[in-house]
Write a structure and sequence with these properties.
alpha/beta, Nucleotidyltransferase, domain 5, six-stranded mixed β-sheet, 557 residues, 12 helices, seven-stranded mixed β-sheet, Ubiquitin-like (UB roll), 22% strand
Length: 557
């Protein structure tokens, strides 16, 4: 009996003319991903975020399924008539010619990272007894949104080079629960997520080695840190137990294995070390960060917050370390923001509003060459800055509603008739589409800052501390963050600005310390065991404090 083969159709990518074959009925986004064309998809392909925008040429429009309700709601009549579609909703019916806007692509390219601030008081160099072989190591921060790789010279004790890359898993959803859900569907899906993370690490390793003229075969070890879900996926372990009560990981202990066992190609015989996890939602990233800032020996009332896709916080109390996971979601990384993007070239990083001139002034991250460029979206720090400015200038109420009492031209109506804030018009953006901040975006910021603030306050209450003495903010988010703006919208408890310090990628710094000084691994194990975990959602006063923290605090100019 002859097997039936699914009908194949040709997908042509414009303007470069690349083409490939795809099966009839296949979703366009999946077909593109299968050919290494990764699109932004913050909602995991559910047609909710609008990030996977493509344009299908008029001549091939009949080769795509008809627009569904999600596309009609997000794109509107005019854009649909112009051929714009959401790749996650398009089913392939026949040959297609597709244009992909640059803003829709999840870039496979690596970008330089800021250098790590390694402690000057620690002697990092260790003697090399094997010559060039094994001289180098990798410190890796396996983030939900971004993967950062630092090439370390173990003989000299310095950082030779560093790069980052967007985590390609993001096409299946920005938050960790989406990743858990996708992985839980099948073993194939879990391995696919693992392969994506491993491939991104390899690309970073290869690129940083090329730029520094280092033979990848001379990388003898790596320390990989991340949240508990990312580490489970990296190890090829099903993380679904973390996604359901009582949220227990399959393992907490540190692991050592060969790079080749998970498919890492830079040197299959290299030793990979993943530090211990604290709990299901407190991973080795916050543990490494605590090690980097020496939190165990900090003054009482010092709080370390690693703000990423999931907020993690550890407080130094009178009786030791107390930690909590704050369900901030990816808003601070602009992942759920309508025109959000990573903090790379073209991203709006800061905003000021001139009410006298009725204009908005955007600070845009320049090109790697230093040249100015038009904005293509807004990153997390820009979102915080914009919300603070809207509140300061009276265009945002204390409960988070956009208002326009004086008829400002900066506030307009969207397709659904709701108010939105225009950061840049179509003619002022790289995408040739307006860049706006919507009411839904502002609500996402409220939920995120409310979760973070609540977590910090409840940690203090549990430790019997009336107020924080010092706040250490870790994560890439803090590189451009305006502390005044963060305090204005109520992200942090009220404390003097000089008591807040940005500590950069402390998770990667901790990974580098564990790489340079393997003897610190026992300290990391002891630290993980000593941390008391506070389950915020189980506290009877959590919901009340969280709801009260959604409003923006009163302020005086």
């Amino acid at each position: 009996m002859r097997s039936l083969k699914k009908e194949k159709h040709t997908i042509k990518i414009l303007p470069d003319g690349r083409w490939f074959a795809a099966e009839r009925g296949e979703r366009l986004m999946e077909a593109l991903a299968g050919n290494d064309i990764l699109l932004q998809s913050r909602c995991g392909g559910k047609g909710l975020c609008g990030k996977c925008l493509v344009r299908i040429t008029e001549s091939s429009a009949s080769g795509a399924s008809s627009p569904d309700d999600s596309e009609a709601r997000i794109l509107g009549k005019e854009e649909l008539q112009a051929g714009y579609r959401l790749a996650c909703r398009v089913q392939i019916l026949h040959d297609l010619s597709v244009e992909i806007p640059p803003a829709s692509l999840l870039s496979p390219d690596t970008v330089p990272k800021a250098p790590l601030a390694l402690p000057e008081t620690v002697s990092l160099a260790r003697p090399s007894t094997t010559g060039s072989a094994g001289r180098y190591g990798l410190a890796v921060d396996l983030g939900t949104t971004t993967i950062a790789v630092y090439l370390c010279d173990l003989a000299s004790g310095g950082i030779t080079g560093s790069l980052s890359i967007g985590n390609p898993q993001a096409m299946f959803g920005d938050d960790v629960l989406s990743r858990i859900g996708f992985a839980a569907q099948s073993k194939k899906n879990l391995l696919r997520l693992q392969k994506m993370a491993v491939g991104a690490m390899d690309r970073c390793a290869a690129a940083v080695c090329r730029s520094t003229h280092v033979d990848p075969g001379h990388i003898g070890s790596a320390v990989v840190v991340g949240n508990s879900i990312m580490i489970h996926i990296f190890a090829g372990v099903d993380p679904r137990s973390i996604g359901a009560y009582p949220y227990r990981p399959v393992f907490l202990e540190d692991r050592t294995f060969k790079a080749g066992s998970v498919g890492l190609a830079f040197n299959p015989s290299a030793d990979i070390f993943t530090p211990p996890l604290i709990s299901g939602f407190l991973g080795s990233d916050i543990l490494a960060a605590a090690l980097a800032v020496d939190l165990d020996h900090a003054a009482c009332g010092t709080l370390l917050a690693d703000i990423g896709t999931n907020g993690e916080a550890i407080l130094k109390g009178r009786e030791g370390l107390l930690a909590a996971s704050c369900a901030t979601g990816p808003a601070f990384e602009a992942a759920t923001i309508r025109h959000g993007m990573q903090a790379v070239s073209g991203a709006i990083a800061a905003v000021s509003i001139d009410r006298v001139g009725d204009r908005v002034i955007c600070s845009v991250i320049p090109q790697s060459s230093g040249a100015d460029c038009l904005p293509s979206g807004i990153c997390g720090s820009g979102v915080v800055s914009a919300v603070a400015e809207l509140y300061r200038t009276g265009l945002l109420s204390g409960n988070g509603l956009l208002v326009n009492p004086t008829g400002s031209s900066l506030i307009r109506r969207d397709k659904a008739g709701l108010l939105e804030f225009e950061l840049a018009g179509a003619s002022q953006s790289q995408t040739q589409r307006p860049i706006t901040l919507t009411q839904t975006d502002i609500r996402a910021v409220q939920l995120a800052k409310g979760a973070l603030f609540t977590g910090m306050k409840m940690l203090c209450a549990e430790a019997g501390i009336a107020s924080l003495e010092r706040l250490l903010v870790a994560g890439a988010f803090g590189n451009f963050l305006d502390i005044k703006a963060a305090l204005m919208i109520g992200m942090f408890p009220d404390l003097p600005e000089d008591c807040i310090a940005m500590v950069g990628n402390a998770a990667a710094t901790g990974a580098a310390l564990l790489l340079f000084k393997p003897e610190l691994r026992d300290q990391a194990r002891n630290l993980a065991r000593s941390v008391k975990v506070l389950d915020l959602a189980a506290r009877p006063d959590f919901q009340d404090l969280f709801l009260r923290s959604l409003a923006f605090p009163a302020w005086t100019s």
